[in-house]
């Protein structure tokens, strides 16, 4: 019989959810969000977009397929994960599976969380928690052990999360004749995998790097955590780029930063989009895609410049899911076409960007 130490999630509205720990037993604090995906906990945990957050998974059984190897490819990109470490503060599940089975699993989720110093909380009614967050919006929360140290609530938006998640120097991948600059705002590895083709050289640059000193053929702006309104330096560099004609594409945070460069305002969503089943429609058509998403902010399309228009909209709440320039080869998506985890219905977005080079 496994011994489990009692622990509790406490929200800043006074709500309390009691359960048991299964990861690293240290108190943690952050913004509590819910994820409705059935799988993908490895990819979500290693997604830099989750920095400063505590994720509750509404699917009840988590951990049953374990954790894959952290091995990297010859170019330094992870084979199975989305970065080289876990970025979120904690994960909350209803029923943690101590036994796992999968062809490429090398350890259990609990062992991984302990090594990465991330809290795991189980025994929580995560669907009740999700309903609470849907009613009240994303809340600050903390997880503390019974009889253990108490800590203060933390606001992940009080710091520039993009600056913390971004690379520190320029990293080059590939040796093709087409030069692509990737602005790293907290990029997922599968974006890099999706951009690397035989004819591409990819320059991964820090979030505040003046990429105009590189003779590039195309600009790609990545996903990332936190508040896009803290990235004015990046926006200024993008604004200079949209004065030209070289192809530009943005994903998630990249959609918001491109929109800001186009004059749009960004606002905080009540509880964000965190799932693998968000329906998105291409504006002007009846094409609908099921998409993977992870973001807490959205673009106000009414504030876009006159040269821009919406490209995609969310069919659940009508919020913006992408923009495009009316004449130039600039476009973006709020969702994740590279998935990992999630559907790959919109992988064509990378093809559309690369064919414009």
Explain this structure to me?
- Keywords: Amino-acid biosynthesis, Arginine biosynthesis, ATP-binding, Glutamine amidotransferase, Ligase, Nucleotide-binding, Pyrimidine biosynthesis.
- Belongs to the CarA family.
- The radius of gyration is 20 Å and the shape is globular.
- It is built from eight helices and 21 strands.
- A hairpin with a 5-residue loop joins strand 17 and strand 18.
- It folds into two domains: 6-145, Carbamoyl-phosphate synthase small subunit, N-terminal domain (Glucose Oxidase, domain 1), CATH 3.50.30.20; 161-356, Rossmann fold (3-Layer(aba) Sandwich).
- With 357 residues, it is an alpha/beta fold.
- The chain starts with 5 loop residues before the first strand and ends with a helix.
- The longest helix has 11 residues, at 126-136.
- A seven-stranded mixed beta barrel has the order 1-2-10-7-4-3-11.
- The model has no long low-confidence stretch (mean pLDDT 96).
């Amino acid at each position: 019989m496994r011994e489990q130490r009692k622990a509790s999630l406490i929200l800043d509205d006074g709500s309390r959810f009691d359960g048991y720990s299964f990861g690293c037993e240290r108190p943690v604090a952050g913004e509590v969000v819910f994820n409705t995906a059935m799988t993908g906990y490895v990819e979500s945990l290693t997604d830099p977009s989750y920095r400063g957050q505590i994720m509750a998974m509404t699917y009840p059984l988590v951990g049953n397929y374990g954790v894959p190897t952290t091995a990297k490819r010859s170019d330094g990109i992870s084979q199975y994960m989305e970065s080289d470490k876990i970025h979120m503060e904690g994960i909350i599940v209803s029923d943690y599976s101590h036994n796992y089975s999968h062809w490429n699993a090398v350890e259990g989720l609990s062992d991984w969380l302990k090594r990465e110093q991330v809290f795991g909380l189980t025994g929580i009614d995560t669907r009740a928690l999700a309903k609470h967050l849907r009613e009240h919006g994303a809340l600050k929360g903390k997880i503390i052990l019974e009889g253990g140290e108490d800590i203060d609530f933390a606001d992940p938006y009080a710091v520039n999360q993009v600056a913390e998640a971004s690379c520190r120097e320029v990293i080059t991948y590939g040796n093709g004749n087409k030069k692509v600059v990737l602005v790293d705002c907290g990029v997922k590895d599968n974006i890099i995998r999706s951009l690397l083709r035989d004819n591409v050289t990819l320059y991964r640059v820090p979030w505040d790097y003046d990429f105009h000193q590189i003779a590039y053929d195309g600009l790609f702006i990545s996903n990332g955590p936190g508040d896009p309104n803290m990235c004015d330096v990046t926006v200024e560099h993008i604004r200079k780029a949209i004065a030209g004609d070289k192809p530009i594409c943005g994903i998630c945070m990249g959609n918001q930063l491109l929109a800001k460069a186009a004059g749009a305002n960004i606002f905080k969503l009540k509880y964000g989009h965190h799932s693998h089943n968000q329906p998105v429609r291409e504006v002007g058509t009846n094409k609908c895609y099921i998409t993977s998403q992870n973001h807490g902010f959205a673009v106000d399309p009414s504030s876009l410049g006159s040269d821009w228009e919406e490209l995609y909209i969310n069919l659940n709440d009508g919020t913006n899911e992408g923009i495009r320039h009316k004449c130039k080869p600039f476009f973006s998506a709020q969702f994740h076409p590279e998935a990992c985890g999630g559907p790959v219905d919109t992988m064509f977005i990378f093809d559309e960007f690369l064919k414009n080079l």
